[in-house]
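**Backbone description:**
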Amino acid sequence: MAVTLYDPDRWLDKSTPSFIPRFLEHDEATLKAFGSQIFDEAFDIYRTAHWSRGEKIHSKLTRIDAHINAYARKIPESKLPQTIISRKGAPPYDYTPGHFADFPSAIISERFAACLMELEPGKHQLSPMVVVDKSGGVVGQAYFWRPMVILDAIDLNSTRIVFMEKADPENSNLMLEPGEGNSVKKDVISDNLAWADARCPSSLFVSDAFLETLSSRKIDDFSTRFTLKEI
């Protein structure tokens, strides 16, 4: 099985302070600009493969392939956030999702990051951040996480997906719907523990095996939204 990670249940728990993060203005602008840049690069890759001197040529490269080629690259370290504000002064959760112009990312705890570094070294972009309150006081440490493994793993014969372009599923992004009936391709996932999917750019996916490892280490400050069978 594979699942998508979602907001922590504690986000709605009024008995404890909520970790509601806010990026510094210039960091947020930089991340959005990077998202726009790689979106444009994906478009250029697709256009170059299908057009030559103003004429359309045959190519098997899909828009999804082009997205994988463009998005599987690191953000320059100099452009990654080093400080983030906890609006209510709470320390960071294990997992808080982020989303910048079609590439998924998250703020994760030090122990979550340590698990990724141990089990999947080199497959993730992880940048340490200091978490401060509104007055600038340090309340914790966290990591900005962006998986560098970008897959086209969702089985297009799944029954609970909605194509954004129904007439052109090969080139289409999609939305997952709650409930059973969705699957991912085991041979595409291979031995990857955590990844982003080119067709579902707002979600982070983890394997069931990795979910069990996280749980065994009590790294569980998150919920899961969609469960997909491996076929």
The chain has a mean pLDDT of 92. The radius of gyration is 18 Å.
